[in-house]
Structure formats: structure tokens, C-alpha cells
């Protein structure tokens, strides 16, 4: 208790207090544009200080103690209550009100507390009901308008007028001698910092963001952009899609924030993909922004690339990139023809020979043409990897990485390759297996690719023989070896288990043996290897791809039914497992 | 009808109670309920303010209730029919000024705004009010170029509301034209707020609101002219207001009105002539000045007005020039400065 008596304010430094007290007085004295600007620019730090103050008040045991240790608090809060810039902003207003309520005593013990209570009630009453202009109030009453409705309508009218003004293009475009009014746009954006969270002013925020930057002076204040960006990431502001895109154009940090937020939400919740993936991505508005601004697409891809390097072999991430690219291409196709930019601009680092073939979607060509197309792609990739292995230095590495990255983005072709492997003849399976191996093991570290190809061929052989058998019982030895191949032994360079699961899934879905047989094989293999979740994922991806190719594929119905049935078996298995054995 | 009367009565009782110590027992449900009742009363006002029959019934009932509440509640303020539109505000004022209201109830009013449903409850009501009022103040401080947009958003809102009210009162669709009520409305406003400069701004805004209304539906168009002309007629009888309006409105907007309405052209033209006739020539200064009225218009202002008229369109130019010439002729048709304000105006206008 003696600590309180010495007047030390935990967390509140005297200089800070003096600074903010001074500011509150200064802001209350004049209403010049400079003080207004000053208030807006200090809004962020003010919030932090108010938070500290609130914490401090909460630490005190009573209002009497608070008034003794931080006597300035009443005056300070009182002044801020009458500052519209502070009260317009949702967070500052909330902190202000919370602080006031913290000073309120339910059971006042002495005159100080009673007085404080009375003062608080007065302030609140005045804030809510005081009519500045009694003459206007009379007019409002005559018009039969409830005061709140009147205020809302006036606000909306003001917003509308300002939106019009902001929408005017720079007048100096028409007449270079005329001084344009664009610098007032900057002033307006500063003044709007406290208003980013107010729902009624959202149209104005959007208009400011979307104003074409045709003139040097028509810049938006950085504080404004930061405020909008922060409010957007906290979901405290509703902006229309184009305004968000404009925000990202103006402010790189907000774009990066949005991408990281998307990555976070997807990578931290892998169970929800792949079905929700597309809607999550579209909802983020990033594909739309990418289609309208190539620079945004390049930045997003850069972030994806660095994530890929950080989290190697993460299937969720690979699926995300793939689905993102699909959404992006869809948005691009929906743009007006004159806005279309050549694809080369969006993929500047990719080896040109691979760009067109990989970006062409499987559904855009006849199924019969698939094998040849894939053979061509594989040959190009093989050539590229061989060239780079011969070359020394970093330059070579980039080409292969970019090619692989494009493959990840256009992973539909990979799934096509898996599907083709089901019915391929032994002499044709080479390139397809190479492609799969390359996808899962892009770097030929330790030159293990040859071994991996051999292993892949083995898996394919096993699967083929298993699924071409028409009658049970299933050869246990084959099942065993298959399961072994799938359980990765960390030290040895082995085949990616996902590759095997993916092949298994495709075989189960696309082969022609009876469903019961396929089910049995899948069940046994997956059970022994423990990769239930991965198998379910594979089946989901197959189904999604088939949905995308609905129009062109003739296999759809039979195959979809099989996919669903198999998925059902696996999900059932997973539930059973978690009950009896715990999570695998 | 009986239900409505009963409900209004009940709300009045609640309003009276809200200012007493009984509110100590109020909680969230009570608050929400009372709020909904006040909203109901506001709705009743909107529906029936243009319906004299129902309005009469309600006003009579209000008188009765007022009397009984006066005896029960010490310091009771009467509630009239027009107060019904302000019901929620009255409740708020009563509650916030009443120290007996539990702090939990007050806290509800100032709670963070929740994105409410259709029938918004009382939670966050005051917070929203503060937000809106603060936002208005912040925005009004933003000065963009040429931002002196007369008549200003507040007068704009009032003006539009006035026009809407007149539309309802004067439109044949709502059961007969109630010119009497409409006149009474405007007279009332003038009586209580006439001194206020804003009122002429509101009237101007009302007239101008039809200018932008290009998307008027057919039913609206029928009354579009009616309300507009009604206001002009009424203005003719309240000359000082008309004078105030014409002298404070930016000339550009007067030109808009001029273009929009033949009636207004006549009114405006008469106004200008009157202004001109009030000017006297001060031989000492060599200028035309206002000798007898304090709020008269200067020679320069008058010539500005006429200059704009000349620039409006060719036919107007002809008419105005002819008119001025006729007036000059009536004054003797001298070309000497200082003898006829009209002659001097003409020479001023012909200078450029």
C-alpha cells in the first residue's frame, strides 16, 4: 500500500503522462486543420497509452486510490470525451468508456467517489443527448425526425458529398495551369483515420482507396493506409472487393498480411481442405487482385516460393498453391479482353517452353492427346534437369525450381499422369513415373533419382498386379511389400509415401476391377501403413479434379461413385482407429 | 385504433416512470421493451401525422393521459403528438438524467455496438449515437476545394424531409389535399424557428431537392410540381424569408431554380426589381446605396444577380434586357449616371 502512497504509477512514465496531458489540452483549445491532423496522426499511440491507463486504473483497489495516485485522470478523460476524433474511432472510444466505467463505484464510500460517479453520469448524458444547436433541434422536431435518424441521414449525406468530391479526377489534367485540389485528398485521408471502423463511412474509405493516382499530390496518407490495413485484418471494416484490391496496391504490408493470413488459416487447419480450399481462397480476394495487377501476382508467388523452401514437402501447401492458381486463371479469363495481359508477364521466370503446355488445362484437350502432351512436358523437364546438373553455380538451379513451381501450380497434369498410369502399358509408364517422382522429389540431392525411379516402378508393378486380379484372395506378399514401400524409413532415401498413396488412390478409382476388391486392397494397405488421412486427401483431390473437368470427362459418374465409396471406407476406418488405437 | 391508443398511453406512462426511482428495478429486458415501445410510437407518428382524423383522436387521448400523469408524477412534462416522433430521444434524456437508473442499465446503452438484427435492442444505442455525431464533426472539418456546398448536408436532410412531408400532405393519393395542414406546418416552423437563419437554408434545400430528382416516378412527378409551387406560394406571403433566401443563396443555385420553374422566375424577377427600387443614389459617394433598410442588397450584388441572369440563356437575356430598358425608360430614359438605377445597371452590365 505504501507503493500507492508514494504516487508511483506502474507502467505510466511521468514524461508520457505529461506529453499526453499536454496533447489533450492542445487538441481541445483550437480546431485548426493542424490540430486535427495532429490528433489523427497520434491516434495509434494514444490508444496504446489509454490501454496502459486502463490497466493502471484496474490495478487500483478503489476510485479514491486512483484519484490519489493519478489525479490527472478525470481531466484527461474528460477532455478526450469531447474530441470527436477520439470518440469516432471504435477502439479509442471503447477504451475511453471502459476507463470511465472503471472509475465508477457501485458503492461509493466517500464524497470523492460520489462526486466521481455524478461526473461520469453527467458526461455520458451530455455525450449522448446534448444537442449542440437548439435551433436545429427545433427544426428537426418540426420535421418529425427522431434525432438519431436525423444524425444518421446527415452523416450519410456528408459521406455521399465527399465521395463525389473524391471521385472527381484531378483538374490539372484538363488544364495544366489550374492548381488541382488533389492535396486536399491527402488531408481528407488523414482526417478519415478515425473513421475506418465506422460502417457509415465505408463508402468514403472505399472511394479514397480507389481514387486513381494520376497526380503527384494525390497520395494517400500512410497512417490512413495503415489504419485501413489493420482494421481490415481484424475484420473491423467492410470494404467492397475493388477497394481491398486498391488497398493492396497502395500498401505492400497489407498485401503481405493478407497472404500470410490465408496461409495461416489453411496450413493450421489441414483437415478442412481440400473442399473448402477454393472458397477460402476466393473469399480472400487475392486471386481477383492478382488478375488485375500482375505485380500483386508476382509478390504472392514470391511469398509462396519462400514458404515452399521453408516447409518442404507440405502437401497442404502444394494443394493451396495449385488451387490458388486455378482461381487466379479463372479470374483472369473473366476479365474484359482489353485488360488482358499476356501470360508471360505473370510468369516471367519460368522457362518459356513449359509455360504454354503446363498452363493449358487438361480439359482443354481431348483425353487421347494427354499421353503425348505429358510425354512432351516430361521430356522438357528432363532436358532441363540434365542441363542444370551439368552446369555449375546457381543459375541452373533457378530454372529447375521455376519449372517445378509451375508444375505445382498446374498440378492437374500431375493427377492426369497418375490417372494414366492406371491403364498404361509397361513401355509407356516411364515418363509418367518420372514426372511423379520429379514432383515429389524435385531436387536430385545425392543423385537418388535413379533409385527412386526404380522404387516407383516397383510400386507401379505391385499395384498393377493387385488391381488387375479379378478374384480374392489377395497375395499377402505383394500387399506387404507395398505397405513397406509406403512406410518411410527416415535414414534411407525412399520414395515419398504420398506418391505411393496417390498412385494407390488413382488405381483404386480408375481401375476396372470390382469395387469390393479395390476397397479391400486399399483398406489393407492403408491400415498397414497408417496413412489414412493422406489417402482420404488423395481421394478428395481426385473428386475435385473430376468436378472441374465435368464437361469433358466421360468417366465421371462411375468414377465419382467409386471415389465416394472408397472415401467412405477410409473415413470409417479412421473413426474406428481413433476409437481403438488412438490417433495414428 | 383502440389498441394504438392504449399502446401510446402505455408508452407515455413508461416515459414518466423512467424519470422516477422505480427504474431501480429495471434490467436489460425492461430496457429493451421500453425502447421497442418508443420505436412503436415513432412509427405511429410517421403513419398518422398527415391523417387529421386519427391525429385528432390521438391528440385528445394524449391530453387526457397528460392530465392523469400530471397528478401522479411530480414535475411531469406534457407530451404532445409531435413529441411522439422524438420518443426515443425523450426516453434517453429521461434515463440518463435520472440518478436512480442502475449503472448496469446505463452500461448497456454504452456497450460496444453489436451488429443488430432488424429490431435493434437498446444495447449500444448511445455508443452508436456518439459514433455518428463524432463522424459528422470529423467530416465537416474536411474542406475540399469548393466545399462551401450550400445548403450544407444538415439543411439538405431537413429540406428533403420537408418536401417529403409536403408531398404526403398535398398529394391527392393520400386522401385529399390538406393545404390547410401544410400551411399550418410551415407557419408553425416559421413562428418557432423563423429567426433562425437556417430556416431559409432549409426552404432553399427543399426547393433544390427536386432539381436532382431525375429518377422521379410517375406518382411522385404528379406532386413534384405541387409541393414546389406550394412553397413558392407560401414564400410570397412571407416576404422577409424570401428576401433572406434570395440574398444568401449562392447565385448559381438561384439560376438552377430559375431554370427549373417558371413560377420561380417571376418571383425572383419581382424580388430583384424590389431590391433595385430600394436603392438610392448617394451623390456624395457617387454610388447607389441602401438608405432605409439595414438588410438590403448592395448595387454590386444586384448587378451580380442580373449578370448571371444574362448569362443563363439567350431568351432570358433578351427578356431581362428588355425589362431593364423599359424600367429605364419609365424613369425618363436619361443616360446620365445617378438618375435611374436601371439605367446604371444596364451600363454596368454592358461594360464587360
Automatic annotation (TrEMBL), chain A:
InterPro entries: FANCC. GO terms for cellular component: Fanconi anaemia nuclear complex. GO terms for biological process: cellular response to oxidative stress; interstrand cross-link repair; nucleotide-excision repair. It comes from the Eukaryota. It holds the Pfam family Fanconi_C. This is FA complementation group C. It comes from Oncorhynchus kisutch (Coho salmon).
From TrEMBL, chain B:
Pfam families: FANCF (PF11107). This is FA complementation group F. Gene3D superfamilies: 1.25.40.490. GO terms for biological process: interstrand cross-link repair. It comes from the Eukaryota. One of its GO terms (cellular component) is Fanconi anaemia nuclear complex. InterPro entries: FANCF (IPR035428), FANCF_C_sf (IPR038505).
